[in-house]
Write a structure and sequence with these properties.
Blueprint: H1 2-18, E1 23-31, H2 38-49, E2 58-64, E3 67-70, E4 76-78, E5 94-98, E6 102-109
Parallel strand pairs: 1-2
Antiparallel strand pairs: 1-6, 3-4, 3-5
Protein backbone atom coordinates (compact mmCIF):
# COMPACT_ATOMS: atom_id res chain seq x y z
CA UNK A 1 0.00 0.00 0.00
CA UNK A 2 2.19 2.83 -1.28
CA UNK A 3 -0.62 5.29 -0.58
CA UNK A 4 0.43 5.36 3.08
CA UNK A 5 3.95 6.57 2.28
CA UNK A 6 2.52 9.04 -0.24
CA UNK A 7 0.27 10.50 2.48
CA UNK A 8 3.21 10.81 4.85
CA UNK A 9 5.08 12.80 2.20
CA UNK A 10 2.07 15.00 1.49
CA UNK A 11 1.61 15.66 5.21
CA UNK A 12 5.25 16.69 5.56
CA UNK A 13 5.05 19.10 2.64
CA UNK A 14 1.73 20.55 3.83
CA UNK A 15 3.03 21.02 7.37
CA UNK A 16 6.07 22.93 6.11
CA UNK A 17 4.02 25.21 3.87
CA UNK A 18 1.25 25.79 6.41
CA UNK A 19 3.89 26.96 8.90
CA UNK A 20 1.72 26.31 11.95
CA UNK A 21 -1.50 27.68 10.44
CA UNK A 22 -4.54 25.37 10.62
CA UNK A 23 -5.25 23.53 7.35
CA UNK A 24 -8.84 22.81 6.27
CA UNK A 25 -8.34 21.26 2.82
CA UNK A 26 -5.41 19.93 0.82
CA UNK A 27 -5.99 19.81 -2.94
CA UNK A 28 -3.97 17.30 -4.96
CA UNK A 29 -3.98 16.45 -8.67
CA UNK A 30 -3.16 12.85 -9.53
CA UNK A 31 -2.90 11.36 -13.01
CA UNK A 32 -4.42 7.96 -13.74
CA UNK A 33 -1.04 6.59 -14.80
CA UNK A 34 0.27 7.07 -11.24
CA UNK A 35 -1.62 3.94 -10.14
CA UNK A 36 -2.94 5.58 -6.97
CA UNK A 37 -6.34 4.50 -5.64
CA UNK A 38 -8.15 7.69 -4.50
CA UNK A 39 -10.29 5.96 -1.85
CA UNK A 40 -7.23 4.24 -0.38
CA UNK A 41 -5.34 7.54 -0.44
CA UNK A 42 -8.17 9.27 1.47
CA UNK A 43 -8.24 6.47 4.04
CA UNK A 44 -4.47 6.59 4.52
CA UNK A 45 -4.64 10.38 4.83
CA UNK A 46 -7.03 10.05 7.78
CA UNK A 47 -4.61 7.61 9.45
CA UNK A 48 -1.52 9.74 8.85
CA UNK A 49 -2.99 13.04 10.11
CA UNK A 50 -4.80 11.57 13.12
CA UNK A 51 -3.48 13.14 16.35
CA UNK A 52 -1.38 15.69 14.43
CA UNK A 53 -1.91 19.41 13.76
CA UNK A 54 -3.38 18.33 10.38
CA UNK A 55 -6.15 16.28 12.03
CA UNK A 56 -9.47 17.12 10.41
CA UNK A 57 -7.88 18.44 7.21
CA UNK A 58 -9.64 17.06 4.16
CA UNK A 59 -7.73 15.63 1.22
CA UNK A 60 -9.45 16.46 -2.09
CA UNK A 61 -8.20 14.52 -5.09
CA UNK A 62 -8.61 15.71 -8.66
CA UNK A 63 -8.14 12.76 -11.00
CA UNK A 64 -6.50 13.50 -14.34
CA UNK A 65 -7.32 11.09 -17.17
CA UNK A 66 -4.44 9.70 -19.19
CA UNK A 67 -4.15 11.22 -22.68
CA UNK A 68 -1.78 10.21 -25.44
CA UNK A 69 -0.82 11.38 -28.94
CA UNK A 70 0.25 8.86 -31.55
CA UNK A 71 3.54 9.79 -33.22
CA UNK A 72 2.59 7.76 -36.32
CA UNK A 73 -0.94 8.93 -37.17
CA UNK A 74 -1.26 12.06 -34.98
CA UNK A 75 -4.40 10.86 -33.19
CA UNK A 76 -4.99 12.18 -29.67
CA UNK A 77 -7.09 10.14 -27.27
CA UNK A 78 -8.00 9.58 -23.64
CA UNK A 79 -7.06 6.13 -22.39
CA UNK A 80 -9.62 3.91 -20.67
CA UNK A 81 -6.90 1.48 -19.52
CA UNK A 82 -3.18 2.04 -18.89
CA UNK A 83 -2.21 0.62 -22.30
CA UNK A 84 0.03 2.95 -24.28
CA UNK A 85 -1.21 2.02 -27.74
CA UNK A 86 -3.03 4.11 -30.34
CA UNK A 87 -6.67 3.19 -30.75
CA UNK A 88 -6.59 4.37 -34.37
CA UNK A 89 -3.56 2.72 -35.98
CA UNK A 90 -2.54 0.37 -33.13
CA UNK A 91 0.86 2.09 -33.02
CA UNK A 92 3.02 2.06 -29.92
CA UNK A 93 5.02 5.23 -30.63
CA UNK A 94 2.96 7.51 -28.42
CA UNK A 95 3.61 10.57 -26.31
CA UNK A 96 1.91 10.99 -22.97
CA UNK A 97 0.07 14.31 -22.84
CA UNK A 98 -1.55 13.93 -19.41
CA UNK A 99 -1.97 11.37 -16.67
CA UNK A 100 1.43 11.40 -14.98
CA UNK A 101 0.66 14.36 -12.70
CA UNK A 102 1.09 14.15 -8.97
CA UNK A 103 1.12 17.48 -7.21
CA UNK A 104 -0.31 19.43 -4.35
CA UNK A 105 -2.15 22.25 -6.08
CA UNK A 106 -3.33 24.32 -3.12
CA UNK A 107 -4.11 24.49 0.58
CA UNK A 108 -7.16 26.01 2.21
CA UNK A 109 -6.18 27.44 5.55
CA UNK A 110 -8.55 28.13 8.44
CA UNK A 111 -8.69 31.49 10.14
CA UNK A 112 -6.23 31.57 13.00
Amino acid sequence: MHELSICRSIAGIVSRHAAGRPVRVVHVRIGHLRQVVPDTLAYCWSLVVEDTPLAGAELRVESVPARIRCEDCGRTETLEAPVLRCGGCDGTRVSILAGEEFLITSLELAEA
